[in-house]
Write a structure and sequence with these properties.
Layout: H1 13-24, H2 29-37, H3 43-50, E1 64-72, E2 75-82, H4 88-100, E3 106-121, H5 126-143, H6 145-153, E4 157-165, E5 173-181, H7 188-208, H8 214-217, E6 220-227, E7 233-242, H9 254-270, H10 272-292, H11 297-308, E8 318-323, E9 326-334, H12 348-356, H13 362-385, H14 389-404, H15 409-419, H16 426-437
Antiparallel strand pairs: 1-2, 3-5, 3-6, 3-7, 4-5, 7-9, 8-9
Helix pairs in contact: 4-13, 5-7, 9-10, 10-11, 10-13
The chain binds (R)-mevalonate.
(R)-mevalonate is lined by residues 85, 277-278, 280-281, 284, 380, 384, 389.
Amino acid sequence: MTKPVNGFSRLTKNEKIEWLAEHYLKSDQTAVSVLKQYWNEDDKLQKLHDEFIENTVTNFYLPLGLAPNFLINGKYFTLPMAIEESSVVAAASKAAKFWSERGGFKARVINNKKIGQVHFLFRGDHEKLRKLFNEIEPKLYKAVEPITRNMVKRGGGILDIDLIDKTADLENYYQLFVNFDTRDSMGANFINSCLEKFAEVLQEEAKKQKNFTPEEKDLQIIMSILSNFVPECRVRAEVSCPVDELCEDASISGKEFAEKFVQAVKIAEIEPYRAVTHNKGVMNGIDAVVLATGNDFRAVEAGVHAYASRNGNYTSLTHANIEDGVFKFWMEIPLALGTVGGLTSLHPLVKLALDILQRPSGKELMEIVAVAGLAQNFAALRSLITTGIQQGHMKMHLMNILNQHQATEKEKAEMIEFFTHHTITHSSVIEQLEKMRS
Ligand code: MEV
C-alpha cells in the first residue's frame, strides 16, 4: 500500500516523476520516458505550461484541427477545434461547406448578462433586512468601485443587485443576486471579487444596525460565487433553405430528408435518453472551439445542460421545422465566453486560435461557438437519418485502429484503398491487416 505523501508540491518535476514511478509504475523507466517525451524542448514554453496548474509532470496533447468554410453572418471563418474524437472536425467541415452553399449561418447574441450570488443566512425580521438592503445598496456599488473601474470604462460593470428571500425553500436563506456585464471577458475573477466585497459590506453593515437583535446582527455569509447557469447570456444560431435544396444525392428527396430530420429533432425534444446524445453531438462542436479558444468548457457544459432542463425535463437544444416549403434549423443556448483575460493572452495556441478567428469580441465568439454546435448537430443528424453514423465514424476511426496495430505508411495506404469499397468494423480491419501481413 502506498503511504500518503507530504510536501508533494514542493518536489521538483523530476522528483515528482520519480516518486510516481516508484509508487505506482513499478519503477518502469519506459513510463518515465513517455512522460518526458511530451516535454517541450523550449524551456520557456514548457515553464509556461508547468505553471498553469500545480504538480505538472508533463503535457497532455489534444489535436488541434481546422474546420474551414463557415459562412457566419456573411463572413467566412475557419474554426480551430481541439478535440480527440475522430470524425468531429470532418463532420463540422462538411456541414459548413453544405450551408455555405445555402446562405450560411445566421447568429446573434440575445443578451450577455452574467450572474453571481452571495448566499447568506439571516435569522430575524425579513422587513428589517429589506430596509437594510435598500439603505446600503449605494454603499455596495461604492465598495466595489476599485474593482469595477476598468470594466466600467469598457462599458460593463454591475447591472443590478437584488435581495432574494429564499426562506420558503430553506430556513433563513437569502441571496444577493447580482447581474453583471463583463464585456469581452468571461469575467469569473471579476464577478467573484465583487461578490466577496458585497458579502463583506453586508456583514459589516448588519453588525452596525442599532435596531437589530443580536441574532440579526450575526448575519452569516455562506459563500459568494458566480453562477454557471446563465440563461440570459444567450445566443441564437440558425440555418434555413428551401426544402428542395436540401438533398445532395438521389438516395433521398429534399422533402423526405427535411421531414425525417424534423422528426429526429422532435424525438430529442420529448425523449431524454435521445436528447442527451443529441445534445452531446451539439457539444462536440461547442467544446472543441471553447477549448481551442482557452475558455472554460466545464462551465459551458454545466450551463448548457442546466438550460436544456430548465422546464423540468431534459430536452433538445436544437429545433427544426418546415414552413411554406422552407426548412429551418435553429438553437438558442447560454454561453459565457471570453476573448480577453484568462488563458487568452497566455497560451500561445489560444492566442493563435483567436487570431485564426480574426480576434472576435466576446459576443462574436458566442456566435461562432453556437454555430459550431448547430453545424455539428446537423452533421450528426444528417448521417443518422441517411447512411447511419458508423460509415463516417469508422472511416475516421480506421486510422486509430491502424495506428494501434503499428501499421506502416504503405499498409495504411493499402488499407484505406481497400476500405473505400468494404465495410469497416474493428474485426474486419484486423482481419484484413493480418491477411496483408501474412
Ligand atoms: C457522437 O460523438 C455524437 C452523436 O452520437 C450525436 C448524435 O447521436 O446526435 C453522433
